[in-house]
Design goal:
Layout: E1 16-20, E2 23-26, E3 31-34, H1 37-40, H2 49-59, H3 72-84, E4 89-93, H4 96-113, E5 121-125, H5 134-140, H6 143-146, E6 156-159, H7 164-170, E7 175-180, E8 183-184, E9 190-191, H8 194-207, E10 210-214, E11 238-241, E12 252-256, H9 277-290, H10 295-316, E13 321-327, E14 330-335, H11 339-348, E15 351-352, E16 354-356, E17 360-363, H12 371-386
Parallel strand pairs: 3-15, 5-6, 5-7, 7-10, 10-11
Antiparallel strand pairs: 1-2, 2-3, 4-12, 8-9, 11-12, 13-14, 14-17, 16-17
Length: 398
Amino acid sequence: MTSALYPTYARADVVFTRGEGAWLFAENGDRYLDFASGVAVLSLGHDHPHLVATLKAAAEKPWHLSNLFQIPQAEILARRLAEATFADVVFFANSGAEAVECAIKTARKYHAANGQPERYRLITFEGAFHGRTLATIAAGGNAKYLEGFGPPMTGFDQVPFADLDAVEAAIGDETAGVLLEPVQGEGGLRVFPKDFLVKLRALCDARGLLLALDEVQCGVGRTGKFLACEHAGVTPDVVALAKGLGGGFPIGACLATREAAKGMTLGAHGSTFGGNPLATAVGGAVLDIVLAEGFMARVAALGGLLRQRLAELEDRYPKVIEAVRGEGLMFGLKTRVPNGDFAAAARAEGLLTVLAGDNVVRLLPPLIIDESHVSEAFSRLDRACARFAAPAKQLGAA
């Protein structure tokens, strides 16, 4: 039967009927260890009892009110996000792309409020992915995503990854700020060096620029800190969040200091569904778990264990795995074989992964995994690697 859906996705031929924790169960009875998490969305895994109970309770109250009225759930979630981060104020949207759009508009409006509306351009980086709207594909600069949609939206100046000299050279009279992902997800799990972020923050301060971070994929505890920029001790002006914030329920958020958001006055931005009672109630339930004492330290510890096991695979299969990248529970395997073939092999072994640029396979498990899941993932990845090459020790390698 011909699908009535747009043919814009290459979907795997598997249908899941049930999920539990880090596991997914297909209609044919096969069981898969989910190290894709809906592309870093299912921060608390499948069928988490606290999220389910929260959603059920919220569903018995008004689902939608619009932002014409008070929404206590949104007020509470915004306050908790501000208390947990650098931010003073929050705008809720429905997705990561919308959160990034709000970040872009916030940066532009900041300078307009300062009497400099000509300062609207943002410096971005090669390998970035900021979403699929016309503005965010222009910010990302990926020719594959821009093709066929007319002239790219103006206002973005792209520079090489982590090149501070290039950033400084790109700053002009129209520059409003810098936009980057502390850990590039789609771009191949490339982590911006801590010293680069520190120097970039100082450069932004010196030149009167806003530092806007896209933490849609790497935020909400995924790297072992609530925000990935915390690893570098860097305080941004604006941050976009989504994905893991809703644990599977669609929600995005743009966080900002009150100063950075001073141009976002009455009527400057809006969203019909953003910040609705259902989404913000579930977002609050996610924070109940993620912000609990010891949770992120546990994520960091498990991330260290996973890195160690992935390094074993890199040593064992040098003809299959070229490098291991990432932070916390956000890893990428740069493979020497086509990454699509490797992901298919992993799926055949019952492990779900996500493709990324630079021939990388992403590993994005739920943050609630334990050591047994790490061991199970290692075993399945080991078997997937063995499909392409014999272990190094069998090849006579030292």
